[in-house]
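Hi F.,

I've been meaning to write this up properly since the lab meeting, where we talked about keeping a consistent format for the predictions we share between groups. The idea is simple: the sequence comes first, exactly as it goes in, then the structure tokens exactly as they come out, then a line or two of notes. No screenshots and no reformatting. I'm using this chain as the first example so we have something concrete to point to.
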Amino acid sequence: MSPIPKTPGHVYQLSNEHHVRVEIKLDHVENWDLNAPQTEGEAGESVEALSLEINASKNITIANYHGYRVTRSRAPFPAAVRIYKSGDIRFRNVLVNAESGIGFCSQDGCHTFLRLSKFPFESSIQDITHHLEVREREFAVLDIPANPITPPPADASAVFAPGAKVRKLEEGFFSTPAPPWTIPASFTSSNTTRTGFIAGLQRMDLSSKMITR
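Output, unedited:
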């Protein structure tokens, strides 16, 4: 097997988007740094796309990394970053998200219209080799040592009887349909129009201070 190349690599402000499997991949390299890399998973082609993969590599710095998925994504993905057989990796300023905001001004003042995605990345980082996971999607500093230690399995819980185990029954569920709207009787007559129905919902929203679509 050929040795891992040790030539340093420096990448600045790389934007890699809309790929099917992996946006950015470091494979069998040392002494690389990615400065301000940004990825974007699209709803169509990138439903099962990984933002960043690091395999059999070491002495890597990822600074000001932004792993993004569009708000119209139809299914979640387990993690933005996956690490295999790698260590001595430094993350600095990480943001993994799936929402977008648009600023606008009107007679009422200036506001932000924020769109939230139902399906972001489940976690920010997974170390597949050592079975470690980082759930936090926004943080400043994370150092992964050259030889991470796999933690021992934790007890089920102090609530359960001694020796009890938690068993997963099923998995793979990520969405449940919302319950149907209850249409008020005043809007169910034959001469009700869509405009009237929407106006009625808006009046109800204002009176109850709730927001519905």
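Notes:
The helical segments are 194-208.
Confidence is low (pLDDT under 50) at residues 187-213.

If this format works for you, I'll send the rest the same way.

G.
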